[in-house]
Amino acid sequence: MQTEVAPNIKNDLLLQAAKGSPTKRPPVWLMRQAGRILPEYRKVRAKAGSFKNLVTNPELTAEVTLQPVDILGVDAAIIFSDILVIPEALGLPYEMVEKKGPFFPKTITSAADIEALKDIDPYTDIHYTIQGIKIVKEQLSGRVPLIGFAGAPFTIFAYMIEGSGSKTFSKARGFLYRYPELSKQLLQKITDATILYLNAQISAGANLVQVFDSWASILPEKQYKEFGLKYIHQICSSISKVPVTVFAKGVTHGFDLLADLPCETLGIDWNMNRSYAIEKAKNKTLQGNLDPCVLYADDQTIVGETLKMLDDFSDVPYIANLGHGVYPDTDPDKVKLFVETVKTYSHENK
Ligand code: CP3
């Protein structure tokens, strides 16, 4: 868990904050900033023809990764890709169905299906994202850090069993009760692949990596320990060169367990009580928390809610962000207002 701040980065506020060092103001970026809201993104997306064409084309990947840095003025870039490249590399290809989301024609239903999964080599199986990172690094020329990412093993497991998003994830949760040992085998395969993939992203130039556990909150605490945290722990322990952020959305009851992970930063959603998070996070940096729906409000409300949040976190290492990804129909001008509000905030003027 070494957290050297990258020497060649001009604006390294994100890395400083992740390391727990005091910063003149909190760094700011938005989950899902690449894609989703910018008209400039939609143009490139239309040119690519489909989401998957965009993800697998390193030049276009680089272009949409840089857009939020240039247009929104955020303090970090996040590589444009998806958490679902891992199941695809393991042997379960996904489709991105327009207006519906991910769909897997083939899912995991048996021991034989798990046995048939491939050992991955990120440099060949996910070469497009690794190449995209290299291009982004060149084009960023050290302006801001680049964030790499992957899904947490349980969230990927849920997609591989379920075959799509779900309201209940009852197939995936049922699988844990029916086949606990098989579940562990599958989670281990996903974990091993994720470790290789994240380390390849870091070798290509990612300055920090974030693990998204979007479906963490559907498990009871005991199961989350056994089928969730244990594998995230392995991932955090395998990364030594850059800071790691774990965002386990909705995990409020087990937040003190997250605080024991060997990572630097913990993401928090908008349901998280701020003083509770600060108390439980011990020596970790916190990231996020603003309700993404605040960005639908009038300017005065956006500024007020943002400043209140910055004040509430002003005594601890903190990275400003939303409590989940920015919603697709958010006005980019409102996002700019949020970013500017953080950038003009000074810890001294509190
Ligand atoms: O943060 C970024 O902007 C980087 C790019 C990124 C994407 N997906 C691009 C994307 C990141 C970090 C992700 C992570 C991701 N993907 C998560 C974890 C974060 C979260 O939101 O909880 C999850 C659960 C997925 C799976 C996924 N991919 C879903 C459910 C969907 C459909 C609905 C949606 O969220 O947009 C996607 C598609 C997707 N991934 C899009 C983008 C820009 C939209 C596709 C399009 O342009 O048609």
Summarize the SSE layout with pairings.
Layout lengths: L12 H7 L19 H10 L2 H5 L2 H15 L4 E2 L6 H6 L4 E3 L3 E3 L7 H5 L6 H4 L1 H14 L5 E6 L1 H10 L7 H9 L1 H25 L3 E6 L7 H18 L5 E5 L6 H4 L6 E4 L5 H7 L4 E4 L10 H14 L5 E2 L12 H12 L7
Helix pairs in contact: 2-4, 4-8, 9-10, 9-11, 10-11, 11-12, 15-16
Overall description:
- This protein has one domain: TIM Barrel (Alpha-Beta Barrel).
- 47% of the residues lie in helices and 10% in strands.
- The protein is built from 16 helices and nine strands.
- It has helices at residues 13-19, 39-48, 51-55, 58-72, 85-90, 111-115, 122-125, 127-140, 153-162, 170-178, 180-204, 221-238, 255-258, 274-280, 299-312, 332-343, and strands at 77-78, 95-97, 101-103, 146-151, 208-213, 244-248, 265-268, 285-288, 318-319.
- The strands form two sheets. Strands 1-4-5-6-7-8-9 form a seven-stranded parallel beta sheet, sandwiched between helices. A two-stranded antiparallel ribbon has the order 2-3.
- Strand 8 (285-288), helix 15 and strand 9 (318-319) form a beta-alpha-beta unit.
- The radius of gyration is 19 Å and the shape is globular.
- The structure holds coproporphyrinogen III (CP3).
- Coproporphyrinogen III binds at residues 31-36, 45, 51, 78, 80-84, 96, 101-102, 149, 165, 212, 214, 325.
Q: How would a crystallographer describe the biggest sheet?
A: 7 strands, parallel
The total count of helices amounts to: 16
Approximate helicity band:
40-55%
Stretches where pLDDT is under 50 for at least 5 consecutive residues are none
- With strands numbered from the N-terminus, the spatial order across the biggest sheet is 1-4-5-6-7-8-9
Please report which band the strand proportion falls in: under 5%, 5-15%, 15-25%, 25-35%, 35-45% or over 45%.
5-15%
Sequence of secondary-structure elements: HHHHEHEEHHHEHHHEHEHEHEHEH
The number of strands is 9
| CATH fold naming | TIM Barrel
| CATH level-1 class | Alpha Beta
Shape: globular
Tally the structural domains.
1
Structural class: alpha/beta
Overall pLDDT confidence = 96
CATH architecture: Alpha-Beta Barrel
